[in-house]
Inverse folding.
């Protein structure tokens, strides 16, 4: 694999606006085609769902852009979005980008205290809030609500898309770090163009696709996979904003004849556990897409066996979205999220220092070439952080991995998640994947647990399939059967469920807290 040439696919035009790229072409060529469906009631007839054609969506986004423009904001002003999972979220996000401002999507699950931090740290001049998420806005910050967006759409003529440069800021997201305060990741207008290697390198997307995404509007996984990419390809996006219920997803897949489905592995696991998927007509579904956390082999096999469909995995990060994936038409290598997408330039670098890529089989830090158009502009007001992540021509996101001889990536967790056992570096994912294959285990998470000052052991936190049969001995024996002794957990702790972030990732650091030592 060559590493020196950098990103090798087509680069974006010098002048580029992300919102225009997503909406303008389809609005001209297929104006009446449905671009967005928002479902509030999975049981209601399809015709009752909220539907937006490309022409109507394009016009609404540009009218919202016009409303924002009349607020008299400085160019590139930040606009924080604190709204529920409604179409207003999408209109405001893309409307802000269309006008040349910088939206800051935030989770509806944030407390007021957490939202206050984002508002202050970003220097946002505007905060748009749903009626149920209203908080006090500080002096000098303009507060908006759904009624303002409705008025703008009724009163203002559509604004033309801002003539932005590809390197101009487009949006700001905050990483949900497991420790410390969140840090802002500033993305350029070109970030949407930088997603093009995913189209066939992960999705196999087509204009006639109907893409159901299980995430909320605020999540970058949803804004990208659920909206940006379907619209840039003239496809139809379906999102659900009704009550949280794991049983709605197969109903929605069947009812809206979805061809692609995107979710985190945990949701696929729950779908299999709480639904009889064989009772639903999933014939329209070509395959599922999964990202956000590692897909374990047992889950992949269970999904395949139950549905007869494939799951294609991707690995990415907030700073560059996904850049490693398994595409349709290529063999899936169980336990690997795939290979570098076409045009991407990735390498494995030594953990401590150096810019010379490691050979296949050696574990190091996963790096992406800084010429990639999907890579962030930088961290918001955190130059100290940027110094830590750039090494020569490479951006290092903190993931440990190795490439095999065929270029398939094998993930070994975060650099700061990796455990140290008897002087050996041990990936928690390797131990978790082993335990998850045991029939008594629903899911498992592994971390280091302190037993006395300066001494830690590998502990496995296991959700049992049968709460009445919680015996650690067979699990320990199974681990010893499949793993080197130094990788095996010393403790098995049974729990009802694993602690997760709002985006479904396991919070390993929370596991050992409160355990008796």
């Amino acid at each position: 694999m060559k590493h020196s040439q950098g990103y090798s696919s087509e680069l974006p035009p010098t002048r580029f606006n992300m919102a225009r790229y997503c909406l303008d072409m389809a609005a001209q060529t297929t104006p009446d085609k449905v671009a967005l469906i928002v479902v509030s009631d999975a049981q209601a007839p399809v015709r009752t769902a909220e539907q937006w054609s490309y022409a109507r969506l394009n016009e609404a986004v540009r009218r919202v852009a016009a409303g924002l423009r009349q607020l008299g904001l400085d160019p590139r002003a930040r606009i924080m979005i604190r709204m529920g999972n409604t179409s207003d979220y999408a209109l405001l996000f893309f409307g802000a980008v269309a006008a040349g401002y910088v939206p800051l999507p935030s989770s509806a699950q944030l407390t007021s205290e957490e939202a206050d931090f984002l508002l202050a740290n970003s220097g946002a001049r505007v905060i748009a809030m749903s009626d149920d998420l209203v908080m006090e806005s500080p002096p000098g910050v303009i507060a908006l609500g759904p009624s303002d967006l409705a008025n703008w759409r009724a009163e203002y003529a559509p604004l033309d898309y801002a003539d932005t440069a590809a390197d101009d800021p487009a949006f700001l997201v905050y990483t949900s770090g497991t420790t410390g305060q969140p840090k802002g990741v500033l993305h350029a207008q070109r970030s949407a163009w930088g997603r093009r290697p995913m189209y066939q390198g992960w999705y196999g997307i087509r204009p006639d696709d109907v893409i159901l995404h299980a995430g909320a509007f605020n999540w970058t996984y949803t804004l990208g996979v659920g909206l940006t990419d379907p619209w840039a390809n003239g496809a139809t996006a379906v999102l659900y904003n009704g009550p949280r219920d794991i049983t709605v997803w197969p109903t929605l897949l069947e009812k809206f004849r979805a061809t692609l489905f995107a979710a985190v592995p945990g949701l696929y696991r729950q779908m299999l556990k709480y639904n009889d998927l064989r009772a639903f007509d999933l014939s329209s579904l070509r395959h599922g897409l999964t990202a956000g956390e590692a897909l374990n082999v047992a889950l992949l096999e269970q999904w395949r066996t139950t549905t007869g469909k494939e799951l294609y995995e991707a690995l990415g990060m907030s700073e560059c979205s996904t850049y490693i994936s398994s595409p349709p038409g290529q063999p899936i290598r169980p336990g690997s999220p795939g290979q570098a997408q076409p045009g991407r330039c990735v390498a494995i670098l030594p953990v401590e220092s150096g810019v010379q890529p490691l050979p296949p089989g050696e574990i190091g830090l996963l790096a992406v070439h800084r010429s990639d158009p999907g890579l962030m502009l930088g961290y918001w007001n955190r130059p100290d952080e940027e110094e830590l992540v750039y090494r020569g021509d490479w951006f290092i996101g903190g993931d440990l991995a190795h490439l095999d001889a065929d270029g398939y990536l094998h993930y070994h967790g975060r650099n700061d998640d990796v455990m140290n056992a008897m002087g050996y570096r041990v990936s928690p994912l390797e131990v978790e994947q082993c335990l998850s294959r045991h029939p008594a285990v629903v899911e498992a998470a592994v971390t280091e647990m302190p037993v006395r000052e300066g001494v830690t052991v590998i502990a496995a936190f296991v959700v049992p399939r049968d709460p009445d049969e919680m015996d650690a001995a067979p699990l320990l024996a199974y681990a010893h059967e499949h793993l080197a002794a130094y990788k095996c957990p010393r403790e098995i702790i049974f729990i009802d469920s694993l602690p997760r972030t709002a985006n479904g990732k396991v919070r390993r650091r929370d596991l050992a807290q409160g355990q008796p030592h």
